[in-house]
Amino acid sequence: MSRPMTADRADLKVICVIPARFASTRMPGKPLALINDVPMVEWVARGASESEYVDELIVATDDERIRDAVESFGRAAIMTSEDLQSGTDRVAIAAAGCECDLVVNIQGDEPQIKGPMIDAVVEALLGDQTVPMATLAHAMSEEEASDPNSVKVVCDLRGRALYFSRSPVPYVMEVEKADWLEHHRFYKHVGVYAYKMHVLRKITELPVSSLEATERLEQNRWLENGYRIKVEITDHESIPVDTPEDLERIQSLLGKNLLSSPGGTAKK
Predict the structure, then answer these.
(1) How far is Cα 259 from Cα 44, in angstroms, rounded to an integer?
(2) Rounded to an integer, what distance in angstroms lies between the CA atom of residue 170 and that of residue 95?
(3) Which pTM was predicted?
């Protein structure tokens, strides 16, 4: 597919980096977990390759097994230190040697990612010149609202993030918790970011903040340091795989034909 071009976008260079760490407390080796006999990281790469904007796609990993798997399905992989504190640090290192304007970060545990989702986050960043980065959110179900693995986000009237939390926020006064979704729309954060390249370098140099350490959400570090984050609402559902139970759910969706096999190839 060809990228929609305008005069101010013709020279835009966008790279996509998928951080894929082998170690995981709840699910070690999850980038290599098989979904319909295909490693999860390959599902993510296939979905990313559908984007109209992505010029180059790289998997940044700390493990040779993941690197070998990525290269076996024809994608580029870069080895990074296993001592890095976050996926964003891994993305920044992988992108450091690239000449580009924007960097897209897709978590390696998002097998439902689709090209239009990446295009939406890139266009959200391009469309608001007052923000240095953008991300996605999706309307949340009642089950997700009570799940600390489903990260919630609240925004201002211009669609900029105010706060990310593992708790259901905001609190709905004088309403039973089971009925909260009838009185307020809650949004789940989707693990896709687009950054301006020079900003990506800066945010990885910031020290861990109090809110980040408390929630274990690095995006709160950026907010605490005054960086605005544009949040684009998407209709595309995406279930991150954090546990073996999440993997079973994804397999179930595949069996019901609700998880399509993406195609396409990112430009090299």
Answers:
(1) 12
(2) 36
(3) 0.88
- Half-sphere exposure in the Cβ direction for 36 (13 Å, CA): 17
pLDDT digits (tens, 9 = 90+) for 84-118: 888 899 999 999 878 899 999 998 888 999 999 99
Structure tokens at 24: 């995981």
**Is the confidence at residue 222, as pLDDT, over 80?**
yes
Within a 13 Å sphere around the CA of 242, how many CA atoms are in the beta-carbon half? 9
176-203 pLDDT, tens digit each: 988 999 999 999 999 899 999 999 999 9
Among residues 105, 100, 70, the alpha carbon closest in space to that of 86 is found at: 105
- Arithmetic mean of pLDDT, 113-141: 94
Q: Do 117 and 238 form a contact (C-beta atoms < 8 A)?
A: yes
Angstrom CA distances, 18 to 163, 218, 242, stand at 24, 17, 16
What the chain holds in terms of domains, given with CATH numbers, is: 14-255 (3.90.550.10)
Shortest CA distance to 237 belongs to which of 114, 104, 149? 114
Which residues, at least 6 apart from 117, have a Cβ–Cβ distance to it below 8 Å? 47, 136, 190, 192, 234, 236, 238
Task: Return the ∠ at Cα 211 (arms to 93 and 30), rounded to 5°.
Answer: 50
Asked if 136 and 235 touch (Cβ cutoff 8 Å), the reply is: no
Closest CA to 185 of 232, 138, 135, 240: 138
